[in-house]
Amino acid sequence: MNAISLASPLTLPCGVTVKNRFGKAPLTEGLSDGWNRATERHVSLYGRWAAGGSGIVVTGNVQVDRRYLERPGNVVIDGPQDAEQMARLKAYAEAGTANDTVLLMQLNHPGRQTPRRVCEAPVAPSAVKLALPESAFAPPRAMTAEEVDDVIARFTHASKVAQDAGFTGVQVHSAHGYLLSQFLTPLVNQRTDQWGGSLENRARLLLTICRSIREACGPSYVISVKLNSSDFQQGGFDSDDSLQVVQWLEQAGIDHLEISGGNYEEPSMMGSKTSEGRSVAESTVKREAYFLDYAEKIRGVTKLPLMVTGGFRSRAGMEEALASGALDMIGLGRPMCVDTDAPNKLLAGAETVGTWEKEIKPPKAGMGWFALNLIRHGDGLDPDTAMTGEEAIKAYVANEEATAQMLEGR
After folding, report:
1. With contact defined as beta carbons under 8 Å apart, do 290 and 284 qualify?
2. CB-side exposure of 276: number of CA atoms within 13 Å?
3. Measuring CA to CA, which residue among 318, 375, 397, 358 is closest to residue 6?
4. Which of 193, 231, 257, 370 could be bridged to 337 by S-S, CB 3.0 to 4.6 A?
């Protein structure tokens, strides 16, 4: 057992020291303005998260191509940034790095998971459509080789902009079925060029992006990757593939790894399955962390600092997971949508966080419920824990429609 506490600092391979073992996991915000720029709502929200005591705060996904968004209110960094946008990003970074917080900008490209309300012609490694209603997602077309090269340049450019704005580093999103994880799975990546076929080829885009960011941003910039432990789909990206990719990522020189799982077709990131496809109730619910079984495997193949997100709610469960040596950081997502001060409270001796979750009815309304409370923090308001699930669903849909109309009318 390791003598590591929740308050123990952690030094990343690049030399940056994280003050404790808490990481605010990335959560989509939808707080941009009509030109997909950062706003005062980001400053308010990230100021609260920084004050809340988490050692690392990872932003919601910032898109590298405004043609392809995860949702209408994403911040986008593509092309030259004018003075106004840089000023907005610098204010965002200043708020999020307060209180000695390591702030990572999560960079993403949704690929075929671009909603139809945003784009009628999404792209993917190959022309394989989502097994979901076409009313939500249009069938994608296969990317050209030139477009793949362009994605590398876009991730690199956005990373440099984030560095210039004052972010401590970036997290490359290669999980949950977005573009980079689409390249990893043979179910979606059916290419026959250097970007498809073998696992080495399918992982080439992710690894090339990480190396390119390192070259552009230097040795002391934090590079994190969010990676699926598995997609939980037969014939797809599995845990053995993931373990190999982790080893390649370490060789590529990244500093931090966050583990999750699933995608839109198989949403295991919501806690429905373990990395081996069993239901959570069979193996991990007692230990709280949905992906802890995979974290234990990863320790056998890498020394990368590892953050596991999903399911942690009690201080005892967090301390036990750290003491086991299977992970280095506790990722907190949903609890931070409501209680932005959760890390401070746990460090001060609180026993649990997120006890109000059990009251959300129906449980599937949770995504909208958490998203709306996150938005309330951005608006400088207190969370509304009395909001019902039904109210949350209606208000969330209305918010997304209003944001989409704002983009259309700009």
Report:
1. yes
2. 11
3. 318
4. 370
Residue 221, domain member (yes or no): yes
CA torsion angle 83 86 87 93 (round to 10): -170
The whole model's pTM is what? 0.92
DSSP secondary structure string for all residues of 324-349: HTS-SEEEE-HHHHH-TTHHHHHHTT
Per-residue pLDDT tens for 41-65? 999 999 999 999 999 999 999 999 9
393 in any annotated domain = no
| CATH number assigned to the domain comprising residue 98 | 3.20.20.70
pLDDT tens column, 212-228: 999 999 999 999 999 98
Nearest to 25 by CA among 221, 264, 308, 292: 308
Residue 361 inside a domain? The answer is: no
* Domain extent at residue 284: 10-355
> What is the tally of structural domains in the chain?
1
What backbone phi and psi angles, to 5 degrees, belong to 89?
Answer: -65, -40
Which sign does the torsion angle of CA 192, 196, 200, 205 carry? positive
